[in-house]
């Protein structure tokens, strides 16, 4: 292979789809030891789960890095995004009461101090909202132009009773699929704001910690699997869940909650809301007999009034997602390549 043919990392590798998973598996998973984790790195779940000694429960750990442009947007900012993203990843594993978060901040030289203060204030407010204290951290300053203003890494730690964690691979035939609210809000809102579009209607990011909402759902019935549909959106999350559990998923497109503002803006922008990031929503599998009770509990929560049952798990077409459009069926594939400028 010549120098000009050297393989390089592209923005498509960070889009959250198949190319990103392949990169992680080739560069990281194949080189790191899993140890005795109940949910190891190779599972590529939202976090790892490691049993504590003497029956002390299981430790859930997750980490995430956050870059977004603009850093402040309708509905939130990079600080709220950083805390919510890590709290939500813990919640997807069933750890709804975080013990602690870390905060590693990388700042470009020349960034106004006021900007950093606003971000730190937002992180503090969001961590208090989520009940997730920030207990340690690190700060680095890069040269002007070496980084785009601010990047934040947060790591979260929680504990669940042994055997009670919720894997994203836990779906079984007959389970119902619930989406906890309107989808596409974060991605469509940020893109329209960044590009200077002024759409009518309430168009803003949904970024928020969902751990209390998830706890409410788990108290109401048997939740078998969860994902927060961030990069790659609902389409990617559903495909990952179907593939990992080796089951089929059938989705009723007309049941998927999408706000009028997002639908209209997505049509103008030529973007499918099912493919873009959400930062305050959950897609969960629920045991069939408990689905109505879980849905009612979610809808009674302030964050879940638009929740809906959108489909079910079937034995046919394992690893695939079928979308019933109302006019026929088609495969719902996850987006490939670079779909959008980075929004989370």
TrEMBL record:
<dbReference type="Pfam" id="PF00586">
    <property type="entry name" value="AIRS"/>
</dbReference>
<dbReference type="InterPro" id="IPR010918">
    <property type="entry name" value="PurM-like_C_dom"/>
</dbReference>
<dbReference type="InterPro" id="IPR011854">
    <property type="entry name" value="HypE"/>
</dbReference>
<dbReference type="InterPro" id="IPR036676">
    <property type="entry name" value="PurM-like_C_sf"/>
</dbReference>
<dbReference type="InterPro" id="IPR036921">
    <property type="entry name" value="PurM-like_N_sf"/>
</dbReference>
<dbReference type="Pfam" id="PF02769">
    <property type="entry name" value="AIRS_C"/>
</dbReference>
<dbReference type="InterPro" id="IPR016188">
    <property type="entry name" value="PurM-like_N"/>
</dbReference>
<feature type="domain" description="PurM-like C-terminal">
    <location>
        <begin position="173"/>
        <end position="323"/>
    </location>
</feature>
<dbReference type="GO" id="GO:0051604">
    <property type="term" value="P:protein maturation"/>
</dbReference>
<feature type="domain" description="PurM-like N-terminal">
    <location>
        <begin position="45"/>
        <end position="160"/>
    </location>
</feature>
<protein>
    <submittedName>
        <fullName>Hydrogenase maturation factor</fullName>
    </submittedName>
</protein>
<comment type="similarity">
    <text>Belongs to the HypE family.</text>
</comment>
